[in-house]
Amino acid sequence: MSQNLDEIDRKLLRELRNNARASHQELSERVGLSASPCARRIRRLETDGYITGYSARIDEEKLGFGFSVFISVRLDRQIDDRLEAFETEVRRCPEIVDCWLMTGSFDYLLRISVRDLAEYERFLTGRLTKLPGVASLESSIPIRRVKYQPARLD
């Protein structure tokens, strides 16, 4: 972690990681500051880019999207135009909830969130295989999540 952060900053980040809805008063009590200096530190952490936003964790399964698939994608060529075209189309697919450009034998790793195997098949054959530059795909179906942590702080 950056040398610019002291222990109170680190405590604030841990508290916000665990509950981003905590009030400045609650946070100040947990880290041992009064509310005003606590609020100033949070603004500084935001301004300096340590805090990049706030969001709610949504249960995809409760929304009917209980089937996830990880897909490794290999493109036919690794040239800028091909990468840009693929990434542009990926951003248009609501089923793709996570996309990483990778090193190694595959170019991208995707996480797909769909209702069931039938929806995955429709997405795979009707859309994903038709994205620009796709040469090969390898699907992996997760059994269960072992760990989730929104950010590493230590």
From TrEMBL:
Domain HTH asnC-type: 5-66
Keyword DNA-binding: yes
Pfam families: AsnC_trans_reg, HTH_24
The keyword Ion transport appears for this protein: no
Keywords on record: DNA-binding, Transcription, Transcription regulation
Superkingdom assignment: Bacteria
Database matches in PROSITE patterns: HTH_ASNC_1, HTH_ASNC_2
PANTHER family, sorted: LEUCINE-RESPONSIVE REGULATORY PROTEIN, TRANSCRIPTIONAL REGULATOR AZLB
Protein name as it appears in the record: Lrp/AsnC family transcriptional regulator
